[in-house]
Structure formats: structure tokens, C-alpha cells
Amino acid sequence: MYKSYIYEDIENKLEEFKELDKNFSLDKDGLYYTIENKNEIIAYILLEKNENNYKLKRIFVKKDERFKSYGTKLLLFIINKKIKKGNLIVGKDNSISDFLIKIGFKKKEDGEFVIEDVENKDFRKKEGQKTVIASIFWNIILATTKIGFGYIGKSRALLADGFNSLSDVVTSSGILLGIHFSNIPEDESHPFGHEKIESVIGVIMGIFMILTAFELGKGGVEILFSGEKREVPEMLTVYFALFSSVVKYFMYKQKIRVGLETENSALIADAKDSRNDIFASLGVVLGILLSIYVNPIFDLIISILVAVLIFKEGVSVILETTDTILDKQDMEFIEEIKKYIYENTDIKNVHDIMMRKSGDKIFLELHIRVPKNMSVYNAHKISDDLENSIKEDFPLVKNVIIHLDCLLN
Questions:
Q1: Domain 2-116 belongs to what architecture?
Q2: Which residues pair with 401 in a beta bridge?
Q3: Is 315 helix (H, G, I), strand (E, B) or coil?
Q4: Which Pfam family is one of this chain's hits (predicted)?
Q5: Which CATH code for domain 123-325?
Q6: 331-406 falls under which CATH superfamily?
Q7: Is 352 helix (H, G, I), strand (E, B) or coil?
Q8: In what order do the strands lie in the sheet with 361-370?
């Protein structure tokens, strides 16, 4: 259980802290955080706040409980839950430098370690949420106007395009939920984090698009072969279809920008849907004009083509997002990692490189060969240095597992 203490609270538990750590010091302005089991303190951290920055003064884990990741868990709890803004700084303590780098700290030129601008850990979430909320707002407006004026203006194509926008409201709402849940920090039950829920949402979005397309297409085909009289659409429906294409263009530009910046597969899929909606709305314009000046059947044909377009994009979204769920290998990235290792280290053999993606994060596994008479300490150091270097130079790599093999004679 995680707990926080201030100066007044510590006074009541002073003996317990001193019994845990003989070098414990009481800091009047300090912030104390602990992990406790049955009210027994297992580990604690002391932070000192200075303006918008936090300095880690001490981290201590009970001797019998070390090497059980309590220090890592407590530090991640501080980073993810307690520090809302500013830098987290650790002094020049070489005894835990490897531990700090694994957590995500960067070593500065003066020897200190820092996680800069902790609030940026929420950038991906905030940008994604802001973009999707704007998308929901505009799709509600488009769906309402196109369905309403499609009905009033007797245009089935505009009506179909309106239901397409209505489906976008549902899928965007799903993406909004995905962004929220995927940004929940990793925990003991989900050590790889929750980012993969974005891909799950992407698949659901694709299925919903296919179902929407089926219903729209089915209705259009039934009318096409029913032989009933077709009405000529009103000219005003053209303007709403044009308005829709303009709005969808700006929605596409915003979604694709944020999606690529944040590596959000669900948002990228939604951007592609908006891009196709541009052509769908322009197709509606063409269909309405042909219906007015040539034959009313064109409005119906365009409504069916819009349904086919939605169906095609739904299938495409499912195929793309399932690649992430099924851990499809990015061979270009794997070759880039291999080239990086050969060009920047003395390692002569790297093989069996595998990767998996979870949201924007990459998890790597690879094998390297070291001399068979090398000490465990030196082999471990090579492995640690390589892991830290890859994570430093490839920011999207969250974790690296390195298996050591011996060089064959």
C-alpha cells in the first residue's frame, strides 16, 4: 500500500522510520512517500520541492525486501501519480545510476540525473483527447445537418453521408475511451502497460464501420431494384455536402498530425476514415448534381458507393490494427537496431531480434554473443550498457530484454 506523509505525520512514526533506516533524517519541508505491508514500512522516498522542481533526497528499501522491485514501484508511483509538473532531479549518486537510467532518468553533464518536465508524460493523452473531442463535436453537427437536410432535400446520398458521420461519433467516443485507458500507467497485473487497448478500440471501430456500411448499402440496393419512383434532390443539399467535405479536410489534417506525433494507431485509423469522408462528401455533391440535371438514379448510386467506401475502410482499419495485436515485426526498425549495435558497440554478433508494439511503445528482445570466458559481471555490464543506449537513442523503446550467448569457436 502506498502512503504519503508530511512533517507532522512523521513525528508520530519517527521511531519506526529510524528503526528501518539508521541514517533517516527528519526534513521539515520534505515530502515522504512509503510502501507499506500490514502497516509495516518496507520502503520510503524523501522528496524536496523547490519551485516547480522536485529533488530526490533519499530512497531506501528494507534490507530483507531488496531486489523485489519495491524501489522501482515506489519511484514510478511518484512519477505517475504525485508529480504533476516540473523536473525530478537526483544528485550525483553513482551507486544507483544504472537503476535510475532504467527508470527513465537522463544523465546531465554535471553528473545529476533528471526526468525533465514530468507533466509531458500526459502530452499524448491530452493532445489525443482534445483532438477526439473536437471530432465528436463536429461530427454531431455534420450528422444532424446532413440527415436533416438529406431528408428535407430528398437526397438519399446526403442522408447516407449523414449516417456515416453519426457512426464517426460512436467510433470517436470509443477512441476517447481508448486514450483514457491506454494512458493508465503499468502495474503488477499489466507490466507492459495498457496501450494495446488502442488497437482493440481500432478493431471495434472497423467492425462498426462495416456494419454501418452494410445497412446503408442494403437499403440503397433494395430501393434501386424496387422500381419505386425516385425523387429529384433539392439544390440546397449540395451546399451541405460541400460544407461537410471542407470540415472533414481540417479534421483529417488535425487527426493525422496528432496521431503520427503520438503514435496512436486508433487516431491514425480515424484520420484515414476522415480522409475517405472527404471524397465521400464530394461524391455526394457529384451524385446530387447528376441527379438534378441528368437522372435521379445517380443520387441512389452514390449512396451505395458511399456504403462501399465505408466498408472498404472498415476492413482496412481492422487489418492494420490487428497487426499490432498480433505483434507483426517491423523489419526496417529491426534492421535499424542491428545496424545501430554494430556501428556503436564492439558486439560482433546480434541475432534473434524480436519486437512488439503497445500503443506508441516498443518492447525489444534480442540475443548477443560474448566471449565464453568473460565474467558474469562484464557480460552483465555490456548488456546493461546496450539496453540503456538503445532506450536513450530510440525514445519509443520502453524496454529491452537481452539474452547472452557465448561466441562459438
A1: 3-Layer(aba) Sandwich (3.40)
A2: 365
A3: helix
A4: ZT_dimer
A5: 1.20.1510.10
A6: Cation efflux protein, cytoplasmic domain (3.30.70.1350)
A7: strand
A8: 350-358, 361-370, 397-406
Residue with cell 524480436: 354
Q: Where in the chain is the domain with CATH 1.20.1510.10?
A: 123-325
pLDDT tens-digit series, residues 11-65? 777 778 777 878 777 777 777 788 877 777 888 778 777 777 777 777 878 877 7
Each residue of 364-385: pLDDT tens digit?
Answer: 999 999 888 888 888 888 888 8
Q: How far is CA 25 from CA 14, 17, 36, 263, 317, in A?
A: 9, 9, 19, 44, 57
Q: In this predicted model, what pLDDT tens digit does every residue of 191-226 receive, in sequence order?
A: 777 777 777 877 887 888 788 788 777 777 777 777
Residue span(s) of the chain under CATH 3.40.630.30 come to 2-116
Confidence of residue 403 (pLDDT cuts 50, 70, 90): very high
Is the dihedral angle over the CA atoms 166, 199, 393, 87 positive or is it negative? positive
Q: Which three cell numbers stand for residue 400?
A: 529491452
Single out the residue of 169, 234, 241, 246 nearest to residue 208, CA to CA.
Answer: 169
